[in-house]
Design goal:
Elements lengths: L2 E5 L20 H24 L5 H13 L4 E7 L2 E6 L4 E8 L8 E3 L22 E5 L9 H11 L5 E4 L16 E5 L2 E2 L2 E7 L9 H5 L3 E11 L2 E11 H5 L9 E4 L10 H8 L4 E5 L5 H16 L4 H11 L9 E5 L16 E5 L16 E4 L4 E3 L9 E5 L5 E5 L10 E10 L4 E2 L5 E2 L4 E7 L9 E8 L6 E8 L13 E5 L7 E9 L2 E6 L2 E7 L14 E3 L2 E2 L10 E2 L3 E10 L5 H8 L2
Parallel strand pairs: 1-5, 6-7, 6-8, 8-13, 13-14
Antiparallel strand pairs: 1-4, 2-3, 3-4, 9-10, 10-12, 11-12, 14-15, 16-34, 17-20, 18-19, 19-34, 20-31, 21-28, 21-34, 22-23, 24-25, 24-31, 25-26, 26-27, 28-29, 29-30, 32-33
Helix pairs in contact: 3-7, 7-8
Length: 596
């Protein structure tokens, strides 16, 4: 049986570092010790999983808890359902989750960190989804250690929402009469294409109560398994709610999102799906066949967490489908309806903190009002071209290795990088052959510098640069960023690089790239979504970099304009809407830039 450990903040259960309501200051020694512990756990957790690979999940949890508790700097590690809550000396917490991974062929260990939930001032009243009322219809849990509704309840509670969470016998027919008042609905139950199960047992007392609904076809009665214990199935006759029941509910769903995690909810013509969508629901998620507990658990948790991070309903679906395209016996996850619904309203494109903005509307002038105008440079200067919306003279095209051209923005007092800043832009890469790290033409390992403000212009010296290239195994595009504090002979003081192999996007696709520096973190976003982050480095010092010019379309080597330098990693393709902020944008603002 394959097993995995997932530290996934945006997918299922969170890795988060939140102070536990304490006002006291955490000393630097504790922070350093915690960093060390986290690095050690990150490096050695997989071998612990391998050692426990022959154990069932509860035994694995216990074994892993003991190991975590023994690490220096860990106060305790306590199993909780399918998770382990780890408390560190600085009072921060992590939730470690272990799953029985029958879904994958190979053991996998992933580690992601994502934006803090409090990163935006967006009002909870400004929404695109109908409302933030959450309804969890948690009728059946064949495994109490993996109860789907509890996971969703925990996610929404972490974001300060209070779901209506009904469990087991609470899941009656009557509890569904007011279903249209909810904006997010999870049906964690049994089901079929045209109905889903309640937990209300058919009795002599309620037969007459629901007789009219049964005669009208709103309710059906089926035998349902409600518990499996010691290999024995316990079943009973329960009421099932049909598509007609949903169609004839009082009121309408107001742009709601419905997740039907029962079997066959999107099989074939799926009358139940049609009922919800025709009644005003915006998006409907479900499965095309029988579905196992683990698969539905991962899918519903992933969707809920992604929506709470303001992914669109379509982006949330793509996120899960890209990791788990189908369950171990072929059940596929699917969606219907609107793919552009978000939990919060997307704000306007931010202007606060904007110190340079290049819309490239026929020129390279700075539209921020700070006068940081660009200078078209190179033997054959960049030429105006169509942008991502097909508008003429609204972007610039750069010529790559054999026609090196760029835009230089002279250094100024306003384009100065410190502990917080953001660089964002659009690119359309049209060639994957260019300059390699030795300055030679290459078709296998080239790099392309989109935006650069890198020390004296050499990659081995202090600076920051954002590059693209060929993705893993030659597929798709690669986006990376680096910054270093060392020099050509002392790489030990370099800061970390963050990269993302973007297989879904190929040559000719427009993609939006954002780099956010927020205190000690560097965060890389593609098309408005965080894809990677790393620490900036404890010795981060932008002094040298802040003495240099900003370059678009090339990494400047030495004094490029005087003829003594080299145009490193010349970009091949289009660049547009370059923005530089003197603050770290929040995830909602990044989404706004990517949707502009």
């Amino acid at each position: 049986m394959n097993k995995t450990l997932l530290f996934i903040s945006s997918l299922i259960v969170l890795v988060f570092f939140a102070q536990c309501g304490k006002d006291n200051q955490v000393n630097q020694e504790n922070i350093a010790l915690t960093d060390h512990v986290m690095e050690f756990v990150d490096d050695h957790i997989q071998e612990q999983l391998d050692l426990a690979s022959d154990k069932e999940v509860p035994e694995m949890l216990e074994s892993l808890s003991v190991w975590l508790s023994e690490q220096e700097g860990v106060i305790n590690a306590v199993p909780y359902r399918d998770s382990i809550v780890v408390t560190y000396v600085d009072e921060s917490e992590s939730i470690v989750t272990v799953y029985d991974m029958t879904l994958q062929d190979e053991t996998e260990y992933d580690f992601y960190q994502f934006f803090n939930r409090n990163g935006s001032e967006i009002s909870q009243e400004q929404v695109m989804i109908g409302n933030h009322n959450v309804f969890i219809y948690d009728a059946y849990a064949l495994d109490e250690n993996l109860r789907e509704g509890d996971s969703i309840d925990m996610l929404f509670s972490f974001y300060d929402y209070q779901p209506t969470h009904l469990k087991d016998e609470q899941c009656t027919v009557e509890s569904l009469r007011q279903l249209t008042q909810y904006g997010y609905i999870l049906l964690a139950t049994h089901g079929a294409p045209n109905s889903f199960a309640t937990r209300e047992l058919v009795t002599s007392e309620n037969r007459l109560q629901y007789l009219d609904d049964r005669l009208a076809g709103k309710l059906r009665v089926y035998s349902t398994v409600y518990k499996i214990e010691n290999g024995y199935e316990y079943s009973g006759r329960y009421y099932w709610v049909t598509n007609k029941f949903i169609n004839e509910l009082e009121g309408r769903f107001n742009n709601a999102v419905v997740f039907n995690s029962s079997c066959e909810g999107l099989k074939g013509d799926a009358p139940l799906k049609k009922a919800f969508l025709s009644k005003g629901a915006a998006t409907y998620y479900g499965f095309d066949n029988d579905v196992e507990s683990y698969y539905k658990y991962y899918a519903s948790a992933c969707i809920a967490e992604a929506l709470l991070r303001n992914y669109t309903t379509g982006e949330a679906f793509d996120l899960f489908a890209s990791v788990y395209p189908q369950s171990s016996y072929g059940t596929a996850f699917a969606m219907a309806g609107d793919d552009d619904v978000t939990w919060y309203e997307i704000p306007d494109v931010p202007t606060d903190g904007l110190v340079a903005y290049y819309p490239f509307n026929g020129n390279a002038d700075d539209a921020s009002g700070h006068g940081n105008n660009g200078i078209l440079s190179g033997q054959n200067v960049p030429v105006p071209t169509t942008d991502r919306k097909g508008r003429a003279n609204s972007a610039y095209e750069f010529g790559g290795y054999y026609n090196r051209n760029w835009i230089r923005v002279p250094n100024s007092e306003t384009i100065q990088f410190d502990k917080e800043f953001t660089v964002a832009f659009w690119i359309q890469q049209t060639e994957l052959a260019g300059m390699d790290g030795w300055g030679s033409y290459s078709t296998t390992g080239p790099g392309f510098a989109a935006v650069c403000k890198a020390g004296d212009g050499n990659a081995c010296y202090p600076g920051l640069y954002i590059t693209t290239g060929i993705g893993k195994d030659g597929e798709g595009l690669h986006v990376g960023t680096n910054n270093s504090n060392g020099n050509a002979h002392n790489h030990d003081t370099w800061n970390h690089e963050i990269n993302y192999d973007y297989r879904r996007y190929q040559l000719g696709d427009w993609i939006h790239v954002s780099l956010i520096v927020e205190n000690v973190n560097k965060i890389l976003c593609i098309n408005g979504l965080e894809v990677a982050r790393d620490e900036l480095g404890k010795e981060a010092d932008f002094t040298s970099m802040n003495q240099q010019d900003l370059y678009i379309g090339v990494m400047a080597g030495w004094n490029l304009e005087s003829g003594y330098g080299t145009a490193w990693y010349p970009f091949y393709g289009k660049i547009d809407d370059v923005r530089v902020y003197n603050r770290a944008l929040d995830p909602f603002e990044i989404k706004a830039l990517a949707r502009e």
